[in-house]
Amino acid sequence: MGFTSDKVTDYLSSYYKPLDEDLGELRAFNEERNVPLILRETETFLSLILEMTQPRRILEIGTAYGYSAVFFARSIPEATVTTIDRNIHMIPVASSVFEDRPEGRRIDFRTGDAETILDEMIEEMRSHPDDDLLYDFVFIDAGKSHYRDFFDRAEQLARPGALIVCDNILMHGWTVDRSYEGARRHRTNVKYMRQFIEYINGREDLTVSLLASGDGLAVIRLHD
Ligand SMILES: C[S@@+](CC[C@H](N)C(=O)[O-])C[C@H]1O[C@@H](n2cnc3c(N)ncnc32)[C@H](O)[C@@H]1O
Fold it and tell me: What structural domains does the chain harbor?
């Protein structure tokens, strides 16, 4: 259970509509196998943000089976999506999910540790600067104790005015209250997540909104 009651979650979920049948089936495929993926509430919120901002270049850190990458690519048919994962069990499944769908042609799947890959991308950007290659929208959904590392790198790859959305910032409520079940076991993640939230809120050149939607979202806009 998360930090909202199951009744609230069920009520909100009752209004959830998958983008199409294929994504509905892909969600079920992930859920049946307990593969982590964006919650329904999170997806609904992201749909709205994507519709409003129409990003052309999307960067995702944390692919898993590729559900959210396909969702991003299908939501914005003109967009390209770069998505990164290092997990050897996820990589072959995500690769076949992308191969089996026409959107896969617009998904650049990079495999390996995200920090290393992002550093390579920054290096490439430095040696061949091209504003058209900067990202408009970044979704951070990987190792919870590394959000600051991902954010610092993502910022260098994003254009001014870009949005960076971080998922799971409340981590079932553990970030807020250590009495939540499981919090003690995850105290390192909690420590780093709290430091990350403190950091982004201390930056005057960012607009930050913290939301209790899904497992908690930070929506961050880089100023122009
Ligand atoms: C919550 S899942 C991503 C779910 C996906 N965004 C979706 O909604 O379909 C997190 C993924 O991040 C990956 N991950 C965690 N730390 C990583 C790192 N340092 N580099 C690359 N991938 C990482 C894990 O292997 C896992 O597959």
Answer: 6-222 (3.40.50.150)
